[in-house]
Design brief:
mainly alpha, 71% helix
Length: 87
């Protein structure tokens, strides 16, 4: 959701007075803020039981190998979540 009153009168006046370099920097900063907000609000809803079931149906994957694969998946999801929460 856009923040209310993001473009204040003072910001509007400063934007009108900007040269190209300053405007590019400002636009890049706004883009980066939006990208960080999008990452922070991203939610991946994954059914781990269904994933486990689907992986177990692959020929050649036994219970021990399946446990290793699930551990790797869960570790990577946690690392990605930690990275987003640090931003």
């Amino acid at each position: 959701m856009p923040k209310a009153n993001l473009l204040t009168r003072d910001l509007y006046r400063s934007i009108k007075a900007m040269n190209r370099e300053a405007m590019e920097k400002t636009i890049n900063n706004i883009y980066d803020m939006g990208a960080r907000d999008a990452l922070a609000n991203a939610v991946i809803d994954m059914d781990m039981d269904k994933l486990r079931q689907d992986l177990s149906s692959v020929s050649g994957i036994g219970e021990k190998r399946l446990e290793q694969i699930m551990d790797i998946i869960q570790r990577n999801i946690k690392e990605a979540d930690d990275k987003v929460n640090k931003s």
